[in-house]
Amino acid sequence: MLKVKPERWAQVRKILDAALELPPEARAAYVARMCATDPDLHREVQSFLAAHDHASDSFLENPALPSVTLGPGARLGAYEIVEMVGAGGMGEVYRARDTVLGREVAIKVLPPIFSRDADRLRRFEQEACSAAALNHPNILAIHQLGSHDGAPYLVSEFLEGETLRDRLEKGPVPVSSALDYMLQLVNGLAAAHAKGIVHRDLKPDNLFLTNNGLLKILDFGLAKLHRSELGTPDAMTQGSSTLPGVVMGTVGYMSPEQVRGQQVDHRTDIFALGAIFYEMLSAKRAFKGTTPADTLTAILMHDPPSLTGTSPNITPPLDRIIRRCLEKDANERFQSAKEVGFALKALSDAPVALRADFPKAPGVPLPRQLITKQTLSLTGLALLAVFALVFAANLGGLRDRFGGAGHIQSLAVLPLANLSGDPA
Fold this sequence. Notes:
The protein is of the alpha+beta class. Helices cover 42% and strands 13% of the residues.
């Protein structure tokens, strides 16, 4: 769910209206020129422009663009609108009050014109069904799916805080906080994967950091179901599959197999984890070119610069964990979110003085590069003995946290302090 403030929506609408006055072949260049210094604005306008063009293919007249139609006090069933809090390519988001249960909720409303777009409507409903099947503290809770005057809406828990994208505009996330957020992310992702759900569009925009330190995964609109484990009709599983040659995702966070339009599995999310973690620690994109094509080429052909040396707290083992997530070959990556979590937890639990080199965690194959001659020569039997004690003390707890695919508990130790696109 892309967050756009109401005042930002006015700016988007102005450029969009002007673009639609131009011939279709001139619109993209106009939008690029008007948004040349603001990649996020360009991405937002493009999303509406693409949706408008797609919807127009099915109708004789150009449809009206989406507009804010719900003011304070408006009702959608049991929900009373308080205010609009954002808008994006998939609709408008409102803060509302549940008059029955007396709680605050968020309501995302899909504009009526977009509801006539079968693909967008399917994605909207899929987001609701996918997320609703996942009862997990690190995944946005979905309460209800409904319709108002022909416009579908989605009711979810109301979150206060900011997206990871907003947080990264302030600079890198400290290593200790980044580790905590990543542990929460892999924990939620492991729960989704255990249900056969692959997100396929993980990025900082779809990760929300609440004021009390929780990370929430948002927007399962591109999620793919690998197995019919949700109790939903087979048609939903079929409809969410990607045909070979169809590229879906966000440039910069797509795995090589996504870029090639190949079939994907849960390991495509592991690649996105690496790109997100890299960006958390550096506030720089792991893969970023001057054009989307350049970025896609980088994903296929190049590795991002090492983070080692950019901060004294980014140790070689931490950098290597990120790099294993970013392996071009899915078989060379961590093979599950649980494996990523085990490696990160082992690193975060290690004594500070020893975090530069740590041994292989029981049962989890770490990157080949982690077992180096330097590691073995510097640590020796004494270091192995120290970690034997550490793992002996923590192994039972780790197994409880990661062992049951359907009963994964939160690994995160929540921080006490609030921590509070793009063409490529």
